[in-house]
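Hi team,

As requested, here is the filled-out complex form for the S-adenosylmethionine run. I kept the field names the same as last time so the parser does not choke. Let me know if anything looks off before we queue the next batch.

— J.
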Amino acid sequence: MHLLISYIKFLFKSSNQHGVHSPFVFELVTQCFYNKKPQPEYELIRRYRKKLMKNRETIKTTDFGAGSRVFSSDDRKISAVAWNAGITPKRARLLNRLVRYLEVEKILELGTSLGISTAAMAAGNKVQIISVEGCHATASVAEKQFREFRLNNIELKVGEFERVISEQYSVNKSSKFQIPNSNSQSTIENTQPQTFDLIFIDGNHQKDPTLGYFETLLPLMHNNSLMILDDIHWSKDMEEAWEEIKMHPAVTVTIDTFYWGLVFLRREQAKEHFVIRV
Ligand SMILES: C[S@@+](CC[C@H](N)C(=O)[O-])C[C@H]1O[C@@H](n2cnc3c(N)ncnc32)[C@H](O)[C@@H]1O
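And here is what came back:
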């Protein structure tokens, strides 16, 4: 019900490229979002997803829930996981175009699942991707598919987001981000200072963890980086998280496409929030 009401509100607020005065956003919308031309890369994305949708094998998946504590384990068909958790074909194609349009080279993804979005970002693009997944069984199917489809530019890290990020990158002590089962807020040094051109957050859609990932990963963005947050209207909590992110002083341009929230830090732009139908 929440989603339906939010969607109706979105339809009233949203627009297409008309009325978008920012040249950067206008071009992004007209040349990338609305680019309907078939691209050769779409074929790999289609085959990758189809292979999973036809896979009737069962895996023991582990769900991550409140505060990203593991709360259940379940036998699920791979096809069902692909159907329920995987990005839709339309969004996969948009993700693929975004990577090319923004000339993205380095990507961090939280939430690999079976790797449909990861494959979409990798297909035909000269990128290096680090993708993080907590469920071992799901990750091993993704790993196998990456090998089969010769997607050699993907580094899959298996573990809870909080732990993997804190082991790799510095953690802001004042952030809402908590390392599970740890008494300290965080003491881990930044062992790998680097930035990403694209950060895609597609897992653990709850307010505090989402704000935590945002704050923690913000220093890993540069002026032209893009952060995409999935499911910003999923719940009232996620909508609150999205509003806080929009208000953050480092954020200038945001684009709400209903299913995604796009965040840019481009200092040369005035702060402006767009709501665009894709
Ligand atoms: C919506 S799915 C990702 C879908 C994928 N990006 C795609 O489009 O194909 C979210 C994934 O994030 C993982 N996940 C959620 N919370 C997590 C956490 N705190 N740590 C590690 N993995 C987590 C889940 O196991 C799940 O596979």
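Two things worth flagging: Residues 41-53 form the longest helix (13 residues). The radius of gyration is 18 Å.

Thanks,
J.
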